[in-house]
Specification:
Helix content is 41%, strand content 24%. The strands form three sheets. Strands 3, 4, 5, 6, 9, 10 and 11 form a seven-stranded mixed β-sheet that branches. Strands 1-2 form a two-stranded antiparallel sheet. Strands 7-8 form a two-stranded parallel sheet. Strand 1 and strand 2 form a beta hairpin. Helix 1 crosses helix 2. The chain is elongated.
């Protein structure tokens, strides 16, 4: 404002009190903040530095106040989360961490066995966000990617190919070498089955299906028992099955598995939902 009088009026304090406060501050700092000999008055170099830092501190205090208020709102907020078992297995720590951090919030969690079911519940406003594997074929949903992994061909450790490549990690083979193998595959209603069917078609054979399942857990368990082949993700193989399964790279980019958190496009995400996504990406 370039005038102590105008500044005092704006602050609704007596001008002498404002001048005394500034003199006291200058004495404490040991520098002069204002050029009082100029008309209008101006900041000294020290004054410019002080103003810059004071503005930064003020902005930080405002941000702190905003974040504290948002955190308080989240602690008493409400959120409904849907997740697939495969989605949970890829991020097993997110739900307990989230529930612990926001223990006073109204959190409802639903385990769903079908990506299609999660999508429908999002569209019907039965859940706010859903953890599922891409692709999501819906123009009415948005999503944010939280984790990427690769699926590999899984064989029993006793399989001839596993014995042959015992010392190699993720040995490369052709899917054609397994045309006589029995496979454990997702049910035909699952979107990942379309990807697997295309892989077999490109290889020129139709797989013999031993079992159709909705989860990696069952497929992994069957292969670990010494029977069949499946497609699996390393993170989804339980510790007691790891030494009974051998993973192979069949050089198939379509086996990339992407975990995403989806939400309805025309629905504004709550602070609680946004924080869940942030935490998921950090896990």
């Amino acid at each position: 404002m370039q005038s102590f009088t105008k500044a005092a009026n704006a602050l609704k304090v007596p001008q002498p009190s404002l001048s005394q406060s500034i003199f006291a501050l200058e004495k404490e700092l040991g520098v002069t903040l204002f050029n009082r000999s100029t008309n209008p008055i101006s900041l000294t170099h020290a004054g410019e530095i002080y103003l810059s830092k004071a503005t930064l501190i003020s902005d930080l205090c405002d941000d702190l106040t905003t974040q504290i208020k948002e955190l308080s709102a989240m602690q008493t907020g409400k959120i409904r989360i849907g997740f697939s078992q495969n989605g949970y297995n890829m991020l097993p720590d997110i739900l307990p961490k989230f529930c612990k951090r926001f223990s006073s919030a109204d959190i409802k969690i639903s385990q769903l066995f079908s990506t299609l079911k999660i999508k429908q519940m999002l569209l019907d406003d039965e859940i706010d966000i859903g953890m599922l594997m891409l692709p999501i074929d819906s123009a009415l949903l948005n999503y944010e990617i939280v984790k990427k992994s690769m699926a590999y061909l899984a064989l029993p450790i006793s399989h001839p190919l596993s014995i042959k490549f015992k010392s190699k990690n993720l040995p490369k083979i052709s899917i054609k070498e397994l045309k006589n193998e029995k496979f454990i595959l997702p049910k035909s209603s699952q979107e990942s089955r379309i990807i697997f069917n295309k892989i077999f078609s490109n290889a020129g054979f139709e797989p013999e299906i031993l079992c159709e399942t909705e989860t990696f857990d069952i497929a992994n368990a069957i292969v670990a028992s010494g029977v069949g082949a499946c497609f699996s993700i390393s993170e989804l193989i339980k510790d007691d099955k790891r030494d009974k399964i051998k993973l192979f790279d069949i050089s198939e980019p379509s086996l990339a598995k992407i975990l995403a958190i989806a939400y309805k496009k025309d629905k504004k995400l709550s602070e609680l939902a946004s924080e869940f996504m942030k935490m998921a990406k950090e896990c």
